[in-house]
Design goal:
The protein is of the alpha/beta class. The chain contains 8 helices and 7 strands; from the N terminus they run ααβαβαβαβαβαβαβ. It has a 7-stranded mixed sheet with strand order 3-2-1-4-5-7-6, with helices on both faces.
Length: 216
């Protein structure tokens, strides 16, 4: 789907109080910046923000960071964050490859990958957020008991991830091929994309994984 261009997107983002313009300056100090002493959770590819803003509202004692590389989409996310509210949520306009530059080793407790671009062509496999190079970055920034949560409607990306994650020295702890049919899924927070495609009858695939520290 083609993104609608917003000519002043960069200016809107820069003006918003939740946006961090130089995230590397907060490396190791995200909890202090967000005035939260609890866990730090990061979503890569936050889209329009329904998932991360709902989480931040529900869990004020947890620090959240939304990462979105497309400014035009990020503007839509920021509309969900009125000024002076959701002070436990920061928003970054950057690529996931910069994660290690902006977060200290062991600083993050959970990483969410929700409906990431599947990059279906084989030659683009290294752009998938569950490619080995990304998983190696996640291992560095995740805490000792940190984990990765993945949701997708794309069976090819899911099956690829089921192979790439263990191959990179991780353990898949939980897995479902139909998340919304699980009896415990009532606490699942849906993204906008998830609502659309599950409403069309598409199953949602989900897994959680933890890095094997002996591989570090």
């Amino acid at each position: 789907m083609r993104m609608r261009n917003i000519p002043d997107a960069d200016e809107r983002i820069a003006r918003h109080g939740s946006h961090v313009a130089i995230p590397a300056a907060l490396k190791g100090n995200w909890r202090d910046h967000l005035h939260v002493s609890g866990p730090l959770h990061v979503e890569l590819g936050s889209g329009k923000g329904q998932f991360i803003t709902t989480l931040a509202n529900r869990h004020p004692d947890t620090a959240f960071v939304a990462v979105e590389r497309f400014a035009t989409i990020l503007v839509q996310l920021l509309k969900r964050i009125p000024e002076e509210s959701l002070t436990n949520l920061a928003v970054l306009n950057m690529d996931a490859r910069e994660l290690e530059v902006c977060f200290a080793p062991g600083e993050i407790d959970r990483i969410y990958l929700n409906f990431s671009d599947p990059w279906p062509k084989v030659r683009h496999a290294n752009r998938r957020l569950t490619f080995r190079s990304f998983l190696d970055i996640y291992r560095i920034v995740l805490s000792e008991h940190g984990d990765l949560h993945l949701k997708t409607d794309n069976i090819d990306l899911f099956d690829y991830s089921r192979e790439s994650i263990p191959a990179a020295g991780w353990t898949i702890a939980n897995l479902s091929r139909n998340l919304h049919a699980e009896p415990w899924s009532e606490d699942n927070i849906k993204t906008e994309y998830e609502e659309k495609f599950s409403g069309m009858g598409h199953p949602i695939y989900w897994l959680t994984a933890t890095p094997n520290r002996k591989e570090a």
